[in-house]
């Protein structure tokens, strides 16, 4: 087992490795091929699944039970979320990054147009987003503590809360006190994706930069909860390593954090590798849509209260299909460049998106499916 990516770097808070050790132990020991059809049937006959049941539903044999899994998942989704589909959009405010991630369009080694929005530009972008009716935004940056320093992000959050009802963050991992500071400015949700839980692969695809530290990134959601955040999101970039083991690790990681912080609002994201700018690499076929659906259904049945987001990485037809079945949240009217909602993006995009529909088009589609688009599902107290 590689040790390079287990070393903490300067100023990184260490809150221990209790949950990480459990996740690594179980994901490394997982042998999906040993599960049988009877294991899947047993899992689907239960009202409440245990971890062994979750393992069975991620196994190859469970692919023969997708229809039954979908029926059960749809019932669970309706029971806990009704017919509501929450809408949001990401706003990239900067794309400077010091990491050397081999799969990412923002990698510091990529020759792309870098940019950072000024606060005035952020305001204009947020107003353009709000004009569409959206009331939830996810602020994103690359990992660069100088170009996108904490004070800059705090001011962006403060500004966003004056225009948008709910503000989440997908930025570089922080220490507990830094999450608490951002929460005091109005941020209430944090998304951090481990990319892959496979230590060897993690070390290979993150050869340099602060992201190379596996445990610091792993514990980001827990530090966010300790800092007072309302909720956190979990995910792996499916296709970097064995997707079944990564999906298992994501589910167990989320389950253990939920168990430790029962009040936490937990959600999943299920990104697959996508083509990136200035690259000949195309990974869209690594994980098929049927396999992605299997992962999403397994998440819903294992953690029925958890939200599941589906992003514009996926084609429109697939996104539409999973709504109400297992997905409860989707992005709309998306730009993945720096800005791009009011004018041309100020910096290059992170990856190619597959669903370019406007908020209005997404709204109509949701209604046509007998579901209810929700623009505000959380009211911040005074």
Give a quick summary of the entry.
The protein has 382 residues and is α/β, with parallel strands linked by helices.
Explain this structure.
- The chain is an alpha/beta fold and 382 residues long.
- 38% of the residues lie in helices and 11% in strands.
- It contains 14 helices and nine strands.
- Strands 1-2-3-4-5-6-7-8 form an eight-stranded parallel barrel, surrounded by five helices.
- Helix 1 (18-29) runs antiparallel to helix 11, helix 2 packs across helix 3 and helix 4 (66-81) crosses helix 12.
- The longest helix is centred in the middle third of the chain and has 18 residues, at 243-260.
- The termini are far apart.
- Residues 278-285 have low confidence and may be disordered.
Low-confidence stretches: 278-285
The share of residues in helices is 25-40%
Q: How would you characterize the largest beta sheet?
A: 8 strands, parallel, barrel
Number of domains: 1
Number of strands: 9
Side by side, the strands of the main sheet go: 1-2-3-4-5-6-7-8
Please state the overall shape, judged from the principal axes of the Cα atoms.
globular
């Amino acid at each position: 087992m590689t040790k390079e990516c287990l070393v903490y770097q300067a100023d990184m808070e260490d809150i221990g490795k209790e949950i990480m050790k459990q996740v690594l132990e179980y994901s490394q020991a997982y042998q999906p091929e040993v599960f049988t059809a009877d294991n899947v049937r047993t899992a689907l006959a239960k009202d409440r699944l245990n971890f062994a049941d979750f393992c069975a539903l991620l196994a190859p044999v469970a692919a023969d039970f997708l229809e039954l899994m979908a029926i059960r998942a749809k019932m669970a989704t309706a029971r806990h979320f009704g017919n509501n589909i929450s809408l949001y959009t990401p706003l990239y405010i900067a794309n400077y990054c010091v990491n050397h991630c081999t799969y990412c369009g923002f990698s510091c080694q990529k020759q792309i147009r870098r940019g950072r929005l000024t606060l005035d530009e952020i305001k204009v972008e947020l107003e353009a987003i709000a004009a569409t009716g959206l009331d939830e935004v996810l602020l994103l940056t690359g990992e660069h503590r100088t170009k996108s320093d904490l004070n800059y992000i705090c001011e962006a959050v403060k500004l966003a809360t004056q225009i948008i009802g709910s503000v989440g963050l997908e930025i570089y991992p922080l220490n507990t006190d830094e999450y608490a500071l951002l929460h005091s400015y109005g941020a209430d949700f944090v998304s951090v994706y481990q990319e892959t839980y496979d230590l060897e692969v993690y070390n290979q695809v993150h050869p340099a930069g602060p992201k190379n530290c596996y445990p610091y990134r792993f514990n980001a959601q827990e530090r966010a909860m300790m800092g007072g955040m309302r909720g956190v999101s979990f995910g792996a970039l499916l296709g970097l390593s064995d997707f079944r083991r990564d999906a298992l690790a994501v589910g167990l990681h989320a389950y253990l954090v939920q168990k430790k912080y029962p009040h936490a609002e937990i959600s999943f994201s299920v990104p697959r590798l996508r083509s990136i700018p200035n690259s000949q690499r195309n990974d869209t076929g690594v994980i098929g849509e049927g396999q992605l659906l299997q992962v999403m259904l397994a998440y819903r049945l294992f953690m029925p209260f958890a939200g599941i987001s589906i992003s514009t990485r996926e084609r429109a037809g697939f996104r539409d299909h999973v709504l109400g079945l297992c997905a409860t949240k989707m992005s709309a009217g998306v730009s993945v460049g720096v800005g791009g909602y009011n004018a041309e993006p100020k910096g290059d995009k992170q990856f190619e998106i597959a669903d370019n529909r406007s908020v209005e088009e997404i709204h109509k589609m949701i209604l046509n499916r007998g579901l209810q688009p929700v623009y505000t599902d959380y009211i911040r107290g005074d």
